[in-house]
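SEQUENCE WITH STRUCTURE:
===
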Amino acid sequence: MLDYFALFLLLFVAVVIFYGIIVIHDIPYEIAKHRNHPHQDSIHAAGWISLFTLHVLWPFLWIWATLYREDRGWGFSDQASPKTHILKLEAELTELKQRIASLEESRPQPAKTDGGDA
């Protein structure tokens, strides 16, 4: 009876380790999918390749998947986000409209003539 229990335990551990490795190799792809990464298919394919190369590529795939975020892109530039840029442009446009309106109010109106003098 103890032999059967040991055999069952050995098979159970082998199956858990097998599926555990498959689940672990897919973590970078799940991160990429969650972040709407533009290269998520490539990360998934490279994850399978990494599975067959004993996960040599896996840390690099993790880094590749976590570098990109949909709200800020790759995050390497110091530029402001597009929303901030649009808000600045809207404020500048409002200021320019106010300046034009104040210039039109302060401009002297041309005198109107009847046209009957000629």
